[in-house]
Amino acid sequence: MHSEVRLRQVALVARDLGPVAARLESDLGLPEPYEDPGIIRFGLRNVVYPVGDTFLEVVSPVRDGTTAGRYLDRRGGDSGYMAIFQFDGFDALAAARGRLSGLGIRVVWQDDRDDIAGTHLHPRDVPGAIVSLDAATPVESWRWAGPAWTGGAPAYEAGGITGITVAAVEPDAVAARWAAVLGVEASGRRVVVDGGRQVIDFTAAGDRSAEGITAVGFDRPGRNGTYEICGVRMDVRADGER
């Protein structure tokens, strides 16, 4: 059972998708991914890997002038990109969306379907990553991960994403900002979601170009290790500890 909001998917951005995908599969032991043909509308291609019932995505620009391409330029190379949070139902998502205007947060993209809804927030208003607020029905489904996760969930391995680290010029203020968006409390530079099962830590960045997701934590039974992939530290622990 999951609480009202959880980190369901993390996205990385890469100039060259193939080598990053190969490292994720060899070092983290991730299974064959889903490739979403629909994201070509953003000028991207991608791969989406299940990690338990959470997801790790890699996107890569296939044309000039994309948001992802500009993000790569600003960060100076491959990096963390998006944090996608799932609310427990469309009513909870509607309440979260309702908080945005009062917080002065702009929505840059919104997609509402019968079984899933997404809301990308302006990164200048919520620094550190592109944050998305989503909901799905049934709650275990996740259309963004492909047909196998549409209308329900297939059998999946144990484990999952346990959290992320986000660098920001003003980490205390940014932690409070993310907490306000998610409708939870910040504890200093830490925000906890999914009933304490996932942790978002905020650290100091030297300047705006260094802001972003710098680490992802995973629970992968039978695996332990730390890897640098796509400009991001991957902390893989068999017991889920980061």
Furnish the topology, listing elements before pairings.
Blueprint: E1 5-13, H1 17-27, E2 44-51, E3 54-61, H2 67-75, E4 79-87, H3 90-103, E5 107-112, E6 116-121, E7 130-136, E8 160-168, H4 171-182, E9 186-187, E10 190-193, E11 198-204, E12 212-219, E13 225-229, E14 232-237
Parallel strand pairs: 1-3, 4-7, 8-11, 12-14
Antiparallel strand pairs: 1-4, 2-3, 5-6, 6-7, 8-12, 9-10, 10-11, 13-14
Main attributes of the structure:
7-stranded mixed β-sheet; single chain; globular; 4 helices; alpha/beta; 2,3-Dihydroxybiphenyl 1,2-Dioxygenase, domain 1; 242 residues
Query: What's the total number of strands?
Result: 14
Gross morphology is globular
Give the number of helices.
4
What string gives the helices and strands in order?
Answer: EHEEHEHEEEEHEEEEEE
Mean pLDDT: 95
CATH superfamily: 2,3-Dihydroxybiphenyl 1,2-Dioxygenase, domain 1
Top-tier CATH class: Alpha Beta
Uncertain residue ranges: none
Query: Strand order within the widest sheet?
Result: 2-3-1-4-7-6-5
Structure class: alpha/beta
Overall number of structural domains: 1
CATH architecture: Roll
Name the beta content range.
35-45%
Radius of gyration, whole Å:
16 Å
Largest sheet: 7 strands, mixed
Q: How is the CATH topology named?
A: 2,3-Dihydroxybiphenyl 1,2-Dioxygenase, domain 1
Portion in helices: 10-25%
Q: Could you give the distance between the termini? A: 22 Å
